[in-house]
Write a structure and sequence with these properties.
Blueprint (H helix, E strand, L loop, with lengths): L12 E6 L4 H5 L3 H4 L9 E5 L5 E7 L23 E5 L6 H10 L16 E2 L7 H19 L7 H15 L2 E6 L2 H4 L3 H7 L7 E7 L5 E6 L1 E5 L8 H4 L7 H16 L6 E11 L11 E3 L5 E3 L7 H13 L5 E6 L3 H7 L5 E4 L2 H13 L5 E3 L16 E2 L8 H13 L5 E5 L3 E2 L9 E2 L4 H11 L2
Helix pairs in contact: 3-4, 4-9, 7-10, 9-14, 10-13, 12-14
């Protein structure tokens, strides 16, 4: 599905979005009160005309004083009858967010069951530039579709096919290095992690743009994670189709950058190390010492801490071009979820101005992020006795921070480095955010880039 607004139409029915206690509720006559409508969040009141047909509708936004709690509340409007509706928004409601909510609420993952969205359509609210809203929704829909697709249909071959399709759509160049060729290309840790799987490990390299500052996105693409020989319990594998959520988010962001025209003023590179962490006689082992592209040796103390290994080689490759900004996106640690929950991904950045821009942009566009520290005092924890680095420090404390410190070692050489430890999943349905795959951080980056790379 390609998310879009309906064209303006004289037949479009008015949809008034109202706060609790808004005088407009009373102005609509006695019907809303008689129907029990008060403007609570998500409430809908259909308004009849004189002949008993539809004259319009009211949609409750909730308490104006608590508006900051409610993300994408206008997505509730997708429960309206399947007609074309013209949104009429009150003062104090973010129009861009409201417009995006109307599109995000139309998402359905219908590949295996059910049907695609066939509900109401909405014209673009007055005062909103529709093009960037469409672009954000299109990128988010791509990310959700990729994450929601199970590993039997979204293995490394399939993720590569999706990347190639996007590259063709937006006119980007793409190159793929796979299987034993990874060793020839000096990407040994990507090969080591993925060599046990039936589908070969690979590094997908996409380029778009010919001038301006350099932006490099590195997305973790573990299409399924058994944990390797340190195998996960069955319950912990249930969501492991989403372990390629970093790669899916990077592709979604690339689509947003292309469709909004932001790619016209910068040189974008997307690096996706793509593997399955499987179990076979070829699996890498606990206790193995791997030599990375950077030359640093890594002792494998847990094969279930594989994401940082494949990211390390990709980050080293990306840093060799000294990009102005390099961002890694990865469903990396459970520690991040324990600390901040599923809605609020931590990010790490040593540059205060860049971190401030991301924090402010994330809050402004309802794609929140929370800055965490590259805490140098924990560096000794990632330094084992027999190798340069440890992929899984013992003790279990500060797991998201030590993972970020590990990755920073390989990002040296980039102008600025940001790491985002995302979840990539919506555990319970919310307006505009159905249960399932979810992009995190992409819209915050999109909104912050004019300040970070002017």
């Amino acid at each position: 599905m390609i998310p879009d607004f309906a064209p303006p139409s004289a037949d479009a029915l008015p949809l008034w979005a109202v706060w609790t206690g808004d005088p407009l509720v009373d102005q609509a006559g006695p019907w809303p009160a008689a129907s029990g409508f008060s403007g609570k969040r998500g409430e809908i009141c259909l308004l009849p005309d004189a002949s008993g047909g539809l004259a319009g509708a009211l949609l409750g936004l909730g308490d104006r004083a608590q508006a900051s709690r409610h993300r994408f509340v206008l997505a509730h409007a997708t429960a309206l009858p399947a007609r074309v509706w013209r949104p009429i928004l009150p003062e104090g409601l973010d129009r861009d967010e409201a417009a995006l909510a109307l599109l995000l609420g139309q998402y359905r993952f219908a590949r295996y069951k059910g049907k695609a969205y066939d509900g109401p359509q909405f014209t673009c609210p007055d005062g909103v530039d529709a093009a960037p809203i469409r672009a954000q929704a299109a990128g988010e829909f791509l990310t959700r579709d990729l994450i929601n697709t199970p590993a039997n249909d979204m293995g490394p071959d399939d993720l590569e096919a999706a990347a190639r399709a996007l590259a063709k759509e937006i006119g980007a160049a793409i190159a793929v290095t796979a299987g034993p060729d990874l060793l020839d290309a000096n990407l040994p840790m990507i090969h080591a992690v993925g060599r046990a799987a039936e589908q070969a490990p690979r590094l997908i390299d996409i380029r778009l743009g010919t001038g301006g500052p350099r932006l490099t996105l590195v997305g973790k693409g573990v299409c399924f994670d058994t944990g390797g020989l340190d195998i996960k319990p069955a319950a912990s594998m249930l969501l492991m189709k989403k372990d390629m959520g970093g790669a899916a988010t990077a592709l979604g962001l690339l689509k947003m950058l292309a469709l909004t025209g932001a790619a016209d003023r910068m040189r974008i590179r997307v690096l996706l190390p793509v593997v399955e962490n499987s179990v076979s006689a070829a699996s890498f082992r606990p206790g193995d010492v791997l030599t990375s592209r950077k030359g640093l040796t890594v002792e494998v103390n847990n094969t279930d801490a594989e994401g940082r290994l494949i990211l390390a080689d990709a980050l080293t490759l990306g840093a060799e071009e000294s990009p102005d900004l390099m961002v890694s996106l990865a469903t990396l640690t459970g520690a991040a979820r324990v600390a901040l929950g599923p809605d609020l991904p931590p990010f790490y950045c040593d540059n205060d101005a860049t971190a401030d821009a991301l924090s402010r942009a994330g809050m402004a566009v309802r794609d929140p992020l929370w800055r965490m520290p590259f805490w140098d005092g924990y560096e000794p924890q990632i330094e084992p006795s027999i190798a340069d680095l440890d992929n899984a420090p013992s003790g279990g404390m500060a797991g998201s921070i030590t993972a970020a410190l590990f990755l920073r070692r390989f990002a040296e050489g980039s102008g600025r480095y940001v790491h985002m430890d995302i979840y990539g999943w919506q555990p319970t349905a919310a307006p505009g955010l159905p249960k399932g795959g979810a992009g995190q951080g992409a819209r915050a980056i999109l909104a912050a880039l004019p300040r970070i790379l002017p």
